[in-house]
Structure formats: structure tokens, C-alpha cells
User: Fold this.
Amino acid sequence: MTTYSHDLRERVIHACEQTGHKTKVCQTFSIARSTLDKWLALRVETGGLTPRPHRIRGHSHKVTDLDAFREWVKSETPVERLEELIPRFEAHYGTPISYSNLHKWLQRIGWSHKKKPSVTNKPNR
Assistant:
């Protein structure tokens, strides 16, 4: 999707005001009628033709500063299980987090929790 220049928007609106014929103006400037209608509504709402800022997609992120998160994990480890970090995270950041979401953020910083090999006494045969 392309963003039309501010100059073009002004020329289209000016031509629409002069002629009063939306369809003819849209054909002249090669824009869709719905685009012209949106620009007219935008001018009524905001008083200008500056495009609205785009909405950031996706869910709100629990971790916004990866370096600070990395330092926090270093200060909180070692832990026996990942579940032990969840209440600590919630207390530190003040927001709830799921097991899978915390695991995802730990993977992003390159942290892996490897199980220690169990030492058992194997009888010699």
C-alpha cells in the first residue's frame, strides 16, 4: 500500500472543492473514490491531510529492553526449573507472563537450561 504525498492530497481536495464532482476528480488523479472520501473525512476530523500514524501490530510485549532482560536473568540464575523464574519475573517487571512466553524470551537472548547428567552408581558386571 502506497502513501500518497501531502501535495497530491491537497491538489485533489482543492480540485474536488472547485468542481464539486468527486468521480471526475478521482479519474483525473487516478485514485479510488474511497480514498477521496477518506481524505475528506480526515480533513473534517483533524483539520489537515497528514496521514494518521500506523498502528503497531502484534501483542504487547512483556520484555522491551533485551539487554536489561539478559542482565536480570544473569542475576536471577541459577534456577532448578523455569517455573521458578515466573514469579520472580512478575515481581520484577510487574506484569504476568506465561511459561511459553518466558521461554521464548530466554531463547531470544540465547539462554538455554541444560539438564545436568544424573550420576548414578552402576554396578560393575
The mean pLDDT is 83. The two ends are 73 Å apart (CA to CA).
